[in-house]
Structure formats: structure tokens, C-alpha cells
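HUMAN: Mind sharing a backbone?

ASSISTANT:
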Amino acid sequence: MIDHKLKFIYIHIDKTGGTSIASSLWPDLRIAEGGTYHDAIGKHWSIKRYNDNAGRRAKYEKYFKFAFVRNPWDRAVSKYFFDRKINEDKSLEKSFKSWLKGRKGLRPQLNYLTINDEVVVDFIGRFENLQRDMNKICDKLNIQRKTLPHANPSKHEHYTKYYDAETREIISERYAKDIEYFGYKFGD
């Protein structure tokens, strides 16, 4: 999502607190009853897509570009419960293990942040430090700090409760680059 007035690009990676961040940065953004926002150009776009689609790479190189990432094991559990909440498909009533084995999963987070395998964003915040890192972004953009709302919450136990050795390994393999690059560990 681009803000031309403040000259920044927010790369919204799904299941990383993005709805809360977007509603904080753009208070007039329409939030639907389920907690998701609509009418947002660039929702879940990668930095590469901004550069390719807009054809304005030189212009956007001067923009402050940021994103938030999340522990891949936690992110998968959040997505599972989000899908169950918003989808009336009875197949989503299956166990987390069945759900995880039956889908490709979420797009790796590094895919949002790289061009030619090089990370090209200026700041990567962490979901685990959402408010603290959002304060840093507000300071960088020279805007007033705001307490982030908790939009789109999912109700579940700590993510570690949903894993066994097999499902831990599925995430380890699917998101190996994210885990290595961001230094995540199971149980963080």
C-alpha cells in the first residue's frame, strides 16, 4: 500500500498484523465486519510487484519501504483459525494437521521483500514486537505514534500446542528461508 503524501510503501504480508497497521496509518480505510479491509490497492503485494506493476522503480526507490514478519509456525496457526472463522466450508473443521498437509500454505515472507533474491525494503518489523516496531516507523515517518488496534484477532492457544514432530517439520521445510533469514525458532 502506497502513501504518496508521506512517501512510503507498506508491504502487507498476510497474518502479520497488517489490518491493525493499515487501519492505524489510514484511519479512513474501510474495515469490514470481519476485520478485513477492502478498497485497498496493493493489499498483499510484494515489493517486486510494486516495481513491476507501477513501472516507477526510480520513483519508489526514494520511498521508505517497510513490512512486518511473523514466526512461521505461529503464522500458520493464525491462518488456520482465520480460515475457519471466515469460511463456512465444513472441510475447515478438520484438524490443524489435516489442514496443513492438505494445502500449499502461506506464501513465504521473503517473497514479499525481495527482488532478484535481494531484500530491498528499508525496515522489517516483527509481529512479536508489533507496537514497538510500529513506533519506530511512526518516528521515521514523522507522524504521531498511535496505539495499534487489535483488528482481526483469532482465538486459540499458544501456537506450540498445535504441533507434533511431523507438522513442525512441514513448516521447517516450507519456510526454511524465512526461518533462517529472520532467525525464528519453534517456541519463540
